[in-house]
Amino acid sequence: MLQKVLLVEDSTSLAILYKQYVKDEPYEFFHVTTGEQAKAFMEKNPPHLVILDLKLPDMSGQDVLAWMKEKQLPTAVIIATAHGTINIAVNLLQNGADDFIEKPIQAERLKTSIANHLKRNKLEGLVEDLQNTFNRKQYQGFIGSSLPMQAVYKIIDSVAPTTASVFIYGESGTGKEVCAEAIHYQSKRSNKPFIAINCGAIPRDLMESEIFGHIKGAFTGATTDRKGAAMLANGGTLFLDELCEMELEMQKKLLRFLQTGRFTPLGGSKELSTDIRIICATNRDPLTEVNEGRFREDLYYRVHVVPIHMPPLRERGTDIIDIATFFLKKYAKEDHKKFKALKRNVELRLCNYSWPGNVRQLQNIIRNVVVLHNDTHVAIEHLPPPLNQPVTNKATPVASKPSFTAPSQLSRNMETADVQHNQTEQQLSSSSEAQTLETSATDAINTSVIRPMADIEREVIQNAIDHCDGNVLNAAVLLELSPSTLYRKKQAWEAYEESE
């Protein structure tokens, strides 16, 4: 879409000249002659840039600028001013205008100014979009701002307005149903039903009835007609969780339904139609299931239009802390407990755990803590097994894993070193070798080179990362720094090394 430039100029001849200047430029150029016309234009469709004359027939350019500021329009403003009103234009720059051009306006000056401000406007828009994207800590039932989750949010934003089938896959407990609900509530079907079926929890004999419904007498116990999920979700979304658990014969019937939008209730003879969107999910590898003959290949390609991978909790970094804190406050409020936050060593313990049950497991653990304890901060002893058990470190050769001293211990270690140094000095002073050793030490100090603080900082940070087996998050916790700070410094060092 082309960017829009609005010229507010009461002189028709000048407007024609300016239009001639920019006739070959890659943007749309509009012209109005009064302040009221400018307001009406901007209210209907705000332009990216306004070239504003100060002297208009019905009001001053200052009045238009003040109105734009009040409306908080995301529009750049260039003031067109005669020589005698430059002081006024400078004052307007301090009150919201972005630039001014002195009349008579030359062609190159006009084109250059417009191009520069449109480029800046576009860059600011991109920055704002990125900030909005990467600052989302909560999104449609999700909690977390990690990069893997931001990618999920972006896909949901893109696919939700469409009618495309979505296939969600990932480990159990990663939030596949939350993802399906997010797609539904971001779509145009949000005011229609969202029906979820767990294909692995329904007996095979009842699966067809569960999805397509049945009529009275279709089987023993069918005493009334019953609508299935396909009809209950009419106009909305049908979510089929654990789709790979469905038997092959039922997969065949499901495929026909997806292709035609029509089905026959169990025991019935009349074919019905429905308008639904299908979202499927599985915790298995669907291609493996296809290759091993447990999942129909044609059904796979029918539902696998837009795949979304839900990342496991262990790959979501500090999202673990955000989710745990969210549930802690939620359950503490519900159960009238005092819990407010996690202790630092608990945060580290949670981030180091592998979370085989993912978010569902974390949720249950926090629930357990709140039910069984009452404190202001969650401590290690509050956690259930295995999280409350001591962590056993594997024996590691000194050469392969350098030791690491946390910042909080540095001052104590330095004091200990000073005491040891003083004791050594006293011992040496009583021997004949003391003078020789002292002289050698003094020469070494005098000839040593003081290292830059940046080198020491890098060594300490790299030592911490090595100590944590490359886990930047854990290193950040030990160093009491933000993980983003460590990532930024690592990127800067790597970029410098590549440029060398």
Characterization of this structure:
- The chain has 500 residues and is α/β, with parallel strands linked by helices.
- Helices cover 50% and strands 12% of the residues.
- It contains 20 helices and 16 strands.
- It has helices spanning 12-21, 35-44, 61-71, 86-93, 107-134, 147-159, 176-186, 204-212, 229-232, 248-260, 286-291, 297-303, 319-335, 344-352, 358-372, 407-429, 434-447, 453-467, 472-479, 483-499, and strands at residues 4-8, 28-32, 49-53, 76-81, 99-102, 138-139, 142-143, 166-169, 194-198, 237-241, 262-263, 272-273, 277-282, 306-309, 341-342, 377-378.
- A 5-stranded parallel sheet has the order 2-1-3-4-5, with helices on both faces. Strands 9-10-13-8-14 form a 5-stranded parallel sheet. A two-stranded antiparallel sheet has the order 6-7.
- The relative contact order is 0.06.
- Mean pLDDT is 83; it is low at 393-425 and 427-448.
Overall mean pLDDT: 83
Put simply, the count of helices is: 20
Number of strands: 16
**Looking at the structure, what is the overall shape?**
extended
**Category by helix and strand content:** alpha/beta
Organism: Aliivibrio fischeri SR5
Protein name: Sigma-54 dependent transcriptional regulator
GO biological process, one term: phosphorelay signal transduction system
Region (Disordered): 384-408
